[in-house]
Design brief:
The protein has about 170 residues and is mostly beta strands. It is built from two helices and twelve strands. It has two domains: about 80 residues, Elongation Factor Tu (Ef-tu), domain 3, CATH 2.40.30.60; about 60 residues, PRC-barrel domain (SH3 type barrels).
């Protein structure tokens, strides 16, 4: 399981005091109000910082981070992921998983055939869409519904799936 979870992506500066627009990658935008210690991450680089203030504008969080006081300071971090430590994450409900824990799981169909590896999850607003990389084939996109995603076993590193008619064309 991953130690750090992405809750947003830093976009462009907002205003003149080093605030940044954050594209949320969490389903609960209000959770930004609880953020204290966060990490800015890109590739192998991870920088710890603190959230000083949060406000909201047009579906984005506007975040002021400690030590970033001008747009010029902030622009260096544009495109970085906004991460939190797993211990600071919102508790999961039953049958819920953090997306970071799902990436890399191997998918099998009901006959036991390996289908591919989960490489991404698109958050569409209604239902998430799982993207499976397949060897020698186009990626397979499946909606995250019980008819398609039959069982997720993070411990075993597997996902049991059903490819409904018309989804593998």
């Amino acid at each position: 399981m991953v130690e750090y979870l992405r809750v947003g992506v830093l976009q462009k500066p907002h205003g003149i005091h080093g605030e940044v627009k954050v594209y949320p990658t969490t389903s609960d935008l209000d959770r930004y109000d609880e953020l204290k210690e966060v990490y800015l991450e890109k590739g192998d680089k991870r920088i710890a910082t603190e959230v000083e203030q949060v406000k909201y504008f047009k579906g984005l969080a506007i975040v002021k981070l400690k030590g970033i006081d001008t747009p010029e300071d902030m622009i260096k971090f544009q495109g970085y992921d906004l991460m939190i430590h797993r211990s600071d994450a919102t508790p999961l409900g039953e049958d819920e998983n953090y997306i970071g824990d799902l990436i890399g799981l191997v998918a099998y169909d009901e006959s036991g055939n390996k289908v591919g590896v989960l490489k991404d999850v698109y958050e569409t607003g209604a239902k998430d869409v799982y993207v499976f990389a397949r060897e020698g084939k186009q990626d397979l996109l499946l909606p995250a519904i019980k008819d398609c995603i039959l069982k997720v076993d993070v411990e075993a590193g597997t996902i049991l799936i059903r490819i409904m008619k018309g989804l593998d064309d």
